[in-house]
TrEMBL record:
Family: Belongs to the short-chain dehydrogenases/reductases (SDR) family.
The protein's name: NAD(P)-binding protein
One GO MF term attached to the UniProt entry: oxidoreductase activity, acting on CH-OH group of donors
PROSITE patterns (UniProt xref): ADH_SHORT (PS00061)
Keywords linked to the UniProt accession: NADP, Oxidoreductase
Length: 250
């Protein structure tokens, strides 16, 4: 297959469902080989591999909040494809009961482990295998700039604020090797995970936050990620790209 990413290798964490799945397929459609990381959904991950083609994709089970699992994920990627051109750190936890009063140490450590520790050490362990011109994309949220945020998102927003600061510094540190580091910050996206615990009224209210009056779709995010992965984005570095249909502006 020929495309803008032919010959490139992409590792996408949390790629069996939602935004990760859409991203893995979008990158493959441009010619990239893809490592489909998952933590529990083996059948869903294998379905993504079949859609891409087993000649250009593998699935790897790994909990990217655990260093031993990260090592396994990187090793299996390199054993199969020898390099990592595109690192998309989509895996993470959404927590909607993170008020100051409701947060205990176990929950704090779980969220920071998944959303901050995982991406930090994924970058650390993957960087030796990323060639010049590589792309790293971390994930934050448009909630970090949304003035109507509720206290329920205190802990989640704190983890994403840390990710945004990591991006700023990594862009400088790795930019010397011509590796760009950017943050993807989606607004409400209609994935299976999004709908958990939400009433129809809540979905309708959040749909109306964007001028178009709808939720985002996984493909809306995947297509932006694909652009950043391509050579045309080479001068985009250290940026926070908010993909929310105008929910936040400025």
């Amino acid at each position: 297959m020929s495309g803008r990413l032919t010959g490139k290798v992409a590792l996408v964490t949390g790629a069996s469902r939602g935004i990760g799945r859409a991203t893995a397929i979008a990158l493959s459609n441009e010619g990239a080989s893809v490592v489909v990381n998952y933590i529990s959904s083996n059948s869903a991950a294998e379905e993504v591999v079949r859609e891409i083609g087993a000649d250009r994709a593998i699935s790897v089970k790994a909990d990217v909040s655990k260093l031993d699992d990260i090592e396994i994920l990187i090793k299996q990627t390199i054993d199969r494809f020898q390099k990592i051109d595109i690192l998309v750190l989509n895996a993470g936890l959404l927590w909607q009961n993170g008020t100051l009063e409701a947060t205990d140490e176990k929950t704090f450590d779980k969220l920071f482990g998944s959303n901050v520790k995982g991406p930090f050490f994924m970058v650390q362990m993957a960087t030796p295998y990323i060639p010049e011109g590589g792309r790293i994309m971390l994930f934050s949220s448009s909630l970090t700039s949304f003035s109507m945020i509720t206290p329920n998102y205190l802990l989640y927003a704190a983890t994403k604020g840390a990710v945004e600061q990591m991006t700023r510094v990594l862009a400088k540190d790795l930019g010397k090797r011509n590796i760009t580091v950017n943050t993807i910050s989606p607004g409400p996206i209609g994935t299976d995970a999004y709908y958990v615990g939400k009433t129809e009224q809540m979905v309708r209210m959040q749909s109306n936050l964007a001028p178009a009056g709808r939720l985002g779709e996984p493909e809306d995010v995947a297509e932006v990620i694909t652009f950043i992965a391509c050579d045309q984005s080479r001068w985009m570095n250290g940026q926070n790209i908010r993909i929310n249909g105008g929910m936040t502006v400025g």
